[in-house]
Structure formats: structure tokens, C-alpha cells
Write a structure and sequence with these properties.
Chain A: Keywords: Iron, Isoprene biosynthesis, Lyase. The complex is a heterodimer. Chain A is α/β, with parallel strands linked by helices. Helices cover 40% and strands 15% of the residues of chain A. Chain B contains two helices and seven strands, in the order βββαβαβββ. In chain B, helix 1 links the parallel strand 3 and strand 4. Chain B starts with a strand and ends with a strand. Chain B has one domain: Glucose Oxidase, domain 1. The chains are: A alpha/beta, B alpha/beta.
């Protein structure tokens, strides 16, 4: 892989051991994937932030490093809200270790905003190169924003943040972003025919790791977020196109004549929606937008929750909408920043959880050991307040 | 034998060969260095100080940190040889400072397990110290 003169100096150790190690990671990945060079990035999003996932070994590695990020970088959700973790039911031992992880990243110049929706906090433009990690954020950046990122692992995203570059391969190259399969979504009139997390949950299993071009739907940005998050969870979708909706379908004309065609039927989507008793309700996977907080506030206004009801959002988004947070919390629901239903040990204590997300439906059983039920946000509110 | 350099450094040890991929997360105990994945060809064997050869990594990316943990505990392989490197093992070897090469020629597979070999991760080379 080609390195310029300053990259070579970093690799030779002239700018310290940590930067040298980070450049070694980028060079090795570039070699593994056949990249010809490094490309400058405009931002990074680093996974491996919850102590629940990286454990004491990941923490000790982070603490051994000494450098500062070269580009704006944020974290994936951590295992607890940074403030008010006691009320959220997190134990002191976990909280202490989690705080050490956050401090280690802060020392490395990573902005301690812990979210899977960094695009709500900093504008990301069409064509920007990124090194993002979290699967739904990667799908959103590539598909909805038209930015370019591979799905990075924790160390490779951190390396890219510190060096400010990433190997130029995969989805950074325009020729690798063409659709590989056509997905036709059957229109329907049933109660969940337009549940984007449900559609994505079914579509992802059929698409696998291919790039789909989806036809027959007109989702808005929040709906695209739910769709992509679910496809990234049940498949390995890092980029999807929606005909006449997502930006690259309006910039390029794709020839889809030779591609496989897949159908997502209304019955397949409806079959996800089994009605079972649940102990708690959680929404905000991926983290809620301001519009989603507004919808929840309207649904919860004047009601009282009868079950634990958690709403997850980026701290910056919650802080910018105090009125909506106020309405939601007056119902007894809690708006929780920094963490989520998948990465927090708090959720392990429930035997069954209702979610509005196709992604959470896929991950809650394995990550939390709980039964998961999916519904619309309206159904989630009904169950939580009945 | 010439392959491709993945992680720098030089390491010597007895060759431990797995025909199957290895998942370090939940597959290798970082406190003992022993392969614990049930039914794995290397189940019960220690990777500590060995030159560990296997086709490629599998499983969670947290496996990179398990390789680092093995090194911190003094139980890491002396070197790693893969048929084809992938990110979990490559990143793990780099952060743990374990020499690693991949893409060796076919003659490598004829070396008997237990042969003492030296992996030169800087040059991407593997050599036999003793000929049996």
C-alpha cells in the first residue's frame, strides 16, 4: 500500500509509539483488503465503548495508549448513562470500570458523546469519507447521507481517528457501491405493513451481505434509519439504496437487469408481531431523533406508565429538546442518554422486553438474554401504559 | 519460506497447527492460554509460547482484545501464522506485538507439528531451526 512521506514517518515511530501502532493497524488492514492507499476522513465513530462488550482486556489496552485524535470522533453507546447511573440500576463495580473506559477515550481526544446517531450532532455531507463502527450508523451514513465508510472494528476506527485516515477499499470506492440485489417490498394495508424495522428485519435475512436496491417504498429519514438498522442486524447490510429516495439512486443510474430479485411480503412482516406479556418497554434503537421524541411525547402526554419504559437518545439530542423530554418523563417514562437496550447490563435483568426496533428484536435475546416483542411506537406506549 | 508480513517482530517456538479457524473470544482462555472451544481440534492445548498456525480467525472482534490479554498474562503465542489474515487476528497480533505472517507457500503445510520454527514478521518469513 502506498504511504506518503509523513505516513512513513509515523510508521517508523517518529511520532510516538501509539501513532506507530495505529499506523501499523491501518497498513495491515489495507494489505488484508488490497487497498492501494490511505484516504483522509472527516470523522470517526469508535465502537468498543461499553465495558459490557470490551471487558477488562479492552480497557487495559486503551489505557496503554497515548495520542490524540486527529479528526472529530465520538463513541458508540456505553453501558450506562454517564450521569444518573444509580437511578438506572447500574452496579457500582460496573459503573467504575465503565467510567475508566470513558476516561481512557477522553484522554485519546475522543469526544465523549456516546451514540449510534452521530449524524444528528454533526453534519455529514454527501461523498465524505468516514471511519464509523456501529452497524446502523454505517448503514445510515452510506445510504441516507451518501457518505462513504466501511464497517470498522473498534481498534480500526480508533486508529483511523488518531491518524485521520483509513485504508481506501470497500465502500470508499464508488465502483463497490452498486446494488447487488433488488428487493421488492409488497404494499399492504395491515397494521404493520409500514413498520420499517419489521420490513428491514425480514429483508436483511434475505439480503445477507449484499447491497440491496429496494423498490416500492417511500420512507422518510427516520424510517430509513429504522430500515437500515434492522437490515444491518439480521443481514450484514452496510449500504442500501431505495429507488428514487436515497441520494445515490438520483446521482447514478443503476442497471439492475441481471440482479437477483427478492420479495418482502406483508405476511412475513406481520409474522414478527406476536403479542406476548412483557416486563419492560424500550424504544430508541437506534437512538431517537428529535422528531421521534416529539412523537413519543404526543403519545405519552397525559398518560402514566405501568411498566418500566426507557427511551434512548444521544445526550445532545435530549439536551436540545428539554420540553419533549419533560413531557415524556412526566408520564413515568425515562429518557436515557449515552447507552441503549443492547449494550447496557441494566436490561439483562428483564425476562422480556418490548421494542419498536427491528434491530433490537434481533439483538435483545442474545445480548440481554431476554425475550423480545416488537410493536409500533404507538403499541409500545399502549403496552407500557395499560 | 516467504509469506506476507502482517505484524512486526521475531518469534520462535514449537509449531502448533489447527486445521480449523480459531475464535479467541470464548475459544481461548486468556487466564490459562488453553483452547477451550468444545470440539476444536486444539481443545485442551496451550497456545503459550507456541508458533500458532491456523487458517484464519472467526467470531467476535473482541477476540483482538483476548489476544492482547494473553500477551499481558505471559501466555501469548510466540508468533501467529495464518493462511489468510483477517482483521480480528491481524489487529490482535499488532496490538499485542506478536509477530504474524500469512500467505506462506504450500510446502509450509508439510512441516510436522512440533517443529521449532522462527517467524520473522518484519520480513514476512518463516524458517525451520531444526530439520527432523
Amino acid at each position: 500500500m502506498y504511504l506518503d512521506a509523513s505516513d512513513e514517518k509515523v510508521l517508523a515511530g517518529e511520532f510516538g509509539e501509539t501513532r506507530q501502532k495505529m499506523m501499523e493497524i491501518l497498513v495491515a488492514l489495507g494489505d488484508v483488503y488490497g487497498a492501494e492507499k490511505l484516504v483522509p476522513i472527516t470523522s470517526a465513530q469508535v465502537s468498543g465503548a461499553s465495558y459490557k462488550t470490551i471487558g477488562k482486556w479492552g480497557l487495559s489496552w486503551l489505557q496503554s495508549l497515548n495520542a490524540r485524535a486527529a479528526v472529530p470522533a465520538v463513541l458508540n453507546p456505553i453501558g450506562m448513562p454517564r450521569e444518573g447511573w444509580q437511578e438506572f440500576g447500574i452496579g457500582e463495580e460496573f459503573a467504575a470500570r465503565q467510567a475508566e473506559v470513558v476516561e481512557a477515550y477522553r484522554r485519546l481526544g475522543i469526544r465523549v458523546e456516546c451514540t449510534c446517531t452521530p449524524y444528528y450532532l454533526r453534519i455529514t455531507e454527501y461523498g465524505e469519507h468516514l471511519a464509523w463502527s456501529e452497524s446502523s450508523a454505517v448503514a445510515y451514513a452510506n445510504s441516507v447521507l451518501g457518505a462513504r465508510t466501511n464497517r470498522e472494528g473498534g481498534p480500526s476506527a480508533l486508529a483511523a481517528a488518531i491518524i485521520g485516515k483509513t485504508p481506501y477499499y470497500g465502500l470508499h470506492l464508488v465502483e463497490n457501491r452498486r446494488p447487488q440485489v433488488v428487493v421488492e417490498v409488497e404494499s399492504g394495508t395491515g397494521p404493520h405493513a409500514n413498520h420499517w424495522g419489521g420490513i428491514g428485519h425480514v429483508a436483511g435475512k434475505k439480503v445477507g451481505n449484499r447491497i440491496p436496491l429496494i423498490t416500492g417504498i417511500r420512507p422518510n429519514r427516520d424510517q430509513l434509519k429504522a430500515l437500515g438498522a434492522a437490515m444491518a442486524a439480521t443481514g450484514a447490510v452496510a449500504l442500501f439504496h431505495v429507488d428514487k429516495i436515497t441520494p445515490e439512486t438520483r446521482v447514478f443510474s443503476f442497471d439492475t437487469g441481471d440482479l437477483d430479485r427478492i420479495t418482502v411480503t406483508e405476511d412475513e412482516v406481520e409474522a414478527l408481531f406476536a403479542e406476548t406479556e412483557v416486563e419492560a418497554v424500550a424504544v430508541g434503537c437506534p437512538h431517537c431523533s428529535a422528531d421521534e421524541l416529539r412523537e413519543l411525547a404526543e403519545l405519552l402526554r397525559g398518560k402514566k406508565t405501568t411498566k418500566p419504559f426507557y427511551v434512548f437518545a444521544a445526550k445532545g439530542v435530549a439536551a436540545a429538546n428539554p420540553d419533549l423530554v419533560g413531557v415524556i418523563e412526566r408520564s413515568g417514562a425515562r429518557v436515557i442518554p449515552d447507552t441503549c437496550m443492547v449494550v447496557s447490563p441494566r436490561m439483562d435483568e428483564f425476562g422480556s422486553i418490548m421494542v419498536d426496533s427491528g434491530k433490537a428484536l434481533a439483538y435483545v435475546p442474545g445480548m440481554c438474554g431476554a425475550l423480545a416483542r416488537i410493536g409500533t411506537r404507538r403499541e409500545c406506549v399502549e403496552v407500557a401504559t395499560s | 519460506m516467504h509469506g506476507r508480513s502482517i505484524s512486526r517482530g521475531i518469534g520462535t517456538g514449537e509449531l502448533l497447527v489447527s486445521s480449523e479457524p480459531i475464535s479467541f473470544l470464548s475459544g481461548v482462555d486468556p487466564e490459562t492460554g488453553i483452547v477451550v472451544e468444545h470440539g476444536h481440534p486444539l481443545e485442551g492445548q496451550s497456545v503459550a509460547g507456541r508458533v500458532l498456525a491456523f487458517p484464519y480467525g472467526k467470531g467476535s472482534t473482541v477476540g483482538s482484545y483476548v489476544i492482547y490479554a494473553l500477551k499481558q498474562n505471559g501466555l501469548a503465542p510466540a508468533a501467529i501464522i495464518n493462511a489468510e489474515a483477517e482483521p480480528i487476528i491481524a489487529v490482535g497480533a499488532i496490538i499485542a506485538e506478536i509477530p504474524m505472517v500469512d500467505r506462506l507457500p504450500g510446502e509450509f503445510s508439510r512441516l510436522p507439528p512440533g517443529t521449532t520454527v522462527t517467524v520473522n514478521g518484519d520480513a514476512g518469513e518463516v524458517s525451520c531451526d531444526e530439520v527432523s
